[in-house]
């Protein structure tokens, strides 16, 4: 199983520090890690630093090899799905996913590549969109196509920035179940930034909480999401309860304390 280590990452935009020495627990194949934290905490910046779109001190290593020493085509490279995926309106969904799956080499399309696109669209139940232009999709449909573009590459490490933010409730649950299956069946290492703490409680093996560019807690979801942490990080009165089927969930009380920053 793949293991990614992230240690001491720092990023500044101009002279403004954003990440202040971020070290994550080991990110392992077969696990889903939820990256939590308020708006502007630095979650997207952390993803962009991990994949090398931003530079700064610190190290990222996959199975003991520093990421910066690997070629862009190396299978150990994490696949990153940003929060906002711009749509090239000229392409159809099928073409966009096919293009995303191309790992260099020839421009001709093999049967295996076309089959991989069809399989991925079917896995996400969006095969009916195959012939549609990207520019004519809804926000949620575009988000599903973004996921298809990530999954068609068959990654070992998947970094997803709020991948369910535009999806209806059924799609959210389906996508998170699919990620769970891919982690368990194929040993995929999934790191997902998500604002819905109840989804994190249900689907994540571990959570990491980022606040003002620093990790303030990490571990098993029910251990980390304590009333004290939720008060400190989000300024809300909330507590964990357990439903009759034994599933933990958060209830939020009325009072909200204004956060700084
Ligand atoms: N390209 C940039 N140039 C300058 N500042 C930036 C840039 N991108 C992000 N920032 C700033 O860095 C901080 C962290 O932003 P980031 O997008 O990483 O937060 P986030 O945790 O992903 O937030 P959200 O939950 O709202 O998506 C914010 O204060 C943001 O304004």
UniProtKB/TrEMBL annotation:
An example of a GO molecular function for this protein is: ATP binding
Question: Which Gene3D superfamilies does this entry report, sorted A to Z?
Answer: P-loop containing nucleotide triphosphate hydrolases
Signal peptide boundaries? none
Ranges where the ABC transporter domain occurs: 4-237
Say yes or no: keyword ATP-binding present: yes
- SMART domains reported in the protein's UniProt record: AAA (SM00382)
Among the Pfam families in the record, one is ABC_tran
Keywords from the UniProt entry: ATP-binding, Nucleotide-binding
Q: List the PANTHER family.
A: ABC TRANSPORTER ATP-BINDING PROTEIN, HEMIN IMPORT ATP-BINDING PROTEIN HMUV
What name does the UniProt record give this protein?
A: ABC transporter ATP-binding protein
> Whose protein is this, by species?
Teichococcus aerophilus
